[in-house]
Amino acid sequence: MEKKTCIIISGATAVGKTLHGIELAQKYNTQIISADSRQCFRELNIGVAKPTKEQLKSVHHYFINSHSIHDDVNAKVFEQYAIKSVQKIFLSNDVAIMVGGTGLYIKAFCEGLDEVPPVKESIRKEISEAYKKYGLQWLSEKIKEQDPAYFFWGEIENPRRMMRALEVKLSSGKSILNFQSGKKVERDFNIKNINLEIPRDELYKRINQRVDAMMQDGLLKEAESLLPYRHLNPLQTVGYKELFEFLDRKISLDNAIEKIKMNTRHFAKRQITWFKGHMKLGN
RNA sequence: GGUCCUGUGGCCGAGUGGCUAGGCAGAGCUCUGCAAAAGCUUCCACAGCGGUUCGAAUCCGCUCGGGACCU
Fold first, then answer.
1. Residue among A160, A144, A142 at smallest CA distance from A152
2. Any atom of strand B under 7 A from CB of A126?
3. Is A15 helix (H, G, I), strand (E, B) or coil?
4. What is the rounded distance in angstroms from the CA atom of residue A61 to the CA atom of residue A32?
5. Tens of pLDDT along A55-106?
């Protein structure tokens, strides 16, 4: 039997992935799996540049509006969800399309993530609260004492990674390094990648225009309605966090809009760097 | 016309004779579980000219540009 194929369309925010993905899906008469860590939340709309209702009607999208901001969504959740979704698509199609800009999620889908024992919520909470209170110094001392191997090999200037290492150690008793094999899972389907790129200045122009359009579409109102949930991870999102600052009267509205544009550029740059280094398969 | 203050990189901002902050933006990068996250690296300066000094962004003079006040 011929192997099935998943075509992945990747690229920075605002390059035009959505449109290309839909065209391609229609050409193959198939469906799309979104690989976007924010568009999966049904409560987030204008600020995350979801496909329009019409677009969603014309091609079925997995992982869009599939979760709530109260759910725990991460790379592992995505991997499992996406694998299930392609399999479903492959039941009736030879080709599936994945569209998205969340590099880590795409990587998890392509290569798999190592099995790491689940971490108790209470431990995670404890660590992040202690870090908030005592800072990086405390964290790095704690790592040194609990997981000297990580202290030696790991990224000891990145609190996020250190906290992850610490939570794994504290809940499993083993260093996270024991679980990170770096082995890639072989999928039983072909993967082809199309990484979309346009000149930087053009991308930045599109970003600016899109932010203005979002504001016209009522992003401020949306942000306002999400204010009660601002502490949730899905709300740590460009376009919302800046408007929360405005609603706090910390910055002016113009200032907030400028910041959204700037932070979106930063985000896009990180995506470009990621895809440059990671998406060398296919195409 | 006079008196005084002031001039630091794209922006903000310390330094006030030798050790040439820092932040933001810009550029580059890292990446196996919060990733639209988190972190790392890096370019760019002392308004101009002259003087003092072993040595000046720092002291002196002049020029130019800002600002304040006086008649």
1. A144
2. no
3. coil
4. 5
5. 999 999 999 999 999 999 999 999 999 999 999 999 999 999 999 999 999 9
Q: Taking the model in full, what pTM does it have?
A: 0.93
User: Rounded to 5 degrees, what angle do the CA atoms A96, A4, A107 make?
Assistant: 60
Distance between CA atoms of A107 and A259, rounded to whole angstroms? 29
Range A111-130 burial, b when 16+ CB lie within 10 A, else e: bbbeebeebeeeebeebeee
Q: Terminal CA-to-CA distance of chain A, rounded, Å? A: 23
Q: Which two tokens stand for residue A194?
A: 């199309």
A262 CA, B25 C1': Å apart = 9
Answer whether any strand B atom is within 7 A of the Cβ of A178. no
**Which residues 219-278 of A interface with strand B at a CB distance below 7 A?**
233-234, 236-239, 262-267, 269-274, 276-277
* Structure-token pair, residue A97: 């399309």
Tokens for A207, please give them.
């970003």
State whether ipTM is beyond 0.95: no
Which residue shows structure tokens 């001392």? A141
At a CB cut-off of 8 Å and minimum separation 6, what does A131 contact?
A: A138, A139, A159, A163
Structure tokens, A3: 């192997």
For the four alpha carbons of A33, A89, A106 and A7, in that order, the dihedral sign comes to: negative
Helix (H) or strand (E) holding A5: strand A5-11
